[in-house]
Amino acid sequence: MNELKQQHDMVISGTGQGNILAEKDRARILVVSDSHGGKVMFASIIMKFGKDADALCFCGDGIPDLLGMLEDSLSREELSRNIPPVIAFVQGNGDQSSYTLLTDERVPVSVPILQTITAAGKKILITHGHRYNVYIGTKELKADAEKLGADIVFYGHTHIANALIKTKRGGAQGTKQKIALINPGSCSLPRGGLPRTFAIVDVFKDKPIPEYSFYEAKWNEFEELTFVPFCPPAGEINLFW
């Protein structure tokens, strides 16, 4: 990524890249959340998976890690080449509403509570989740996503990887429109005995439901960081059960 510029919609991207993302027939999105100081892990994920992604969505609690990774990319050409052309992000309960990106100038960066982007014709809502009681389920999050007309939701906060496909309320008679609710888990501080995880989501213009896969970050016997497919827990997550 050669241009670090926050656009009017608060997405960091090159000029026109948001429109390109919206018009794609298929868009691959790298979804990361809750890095909590894990800038090195964040950068490692970008180095491995960023090049093939059309966008990066960060669901909060670690905005300094995201911005630190972007700052590092200014002097690390290989890292810069692997950063997706569109970066959407939101404020977690541990983040501030504004930061400064240190390039050759001090660039102010505003961090929204909610963000929406369009990828392959699908509207995606990005939020951290702490304002929707996601510790006890996704009912409130789904209801608000429906009001906003979202087809897909990315959220974090629970630190537990999860993916749910639910039926939207209402809609045209005789149809059952679906909405995908995807939590990539935490790439640094997972809960519930789960590993460090993130997600890759493929969105299609001609398919109502995205395809998604989760990956675990782990160290092998040679103390090298590796990434292996991971199957997240099924069903609603309730941290108080």
TrEMBL record:
Protein name, entry field: Phosphoesterase
A Pfam family: Metallophos_2
Listed GO MF terms: hydrolase activity; metal ion binding
Ranges where the Calcineurin-like phosphoesterase domain occurs: 28-203
Obligatory cofactor(s): a divalent metal cation
InterPro entries per record: Calcineurin-like_PHP_lpxH (IPR024654), Metallo-depent_PP-like (IPR029052), Phosphodiesterase_MJ0936/Vps29 (IPR000979)
UniProt EC number: 3.1.4.-
Gene3D superfamilies: 3.60.21.10
Lineage, opening ranks: Bacteria, Pseudomonadati, Spirochaetota, Spirochaetia, Spirochaetales
Keyword annotations of the record: Metal-binding
Keyword Methyltransferase found: no
Enzyme class: hydrolase
Highest taxon listed in the record's lineage: Bacteria
Family: Belongs to the metallophosphoesterase superfamily. YfcE family.
Keyword presence, Metal-binding: yes
NCBIfam families: yfcE (TIGR00040)
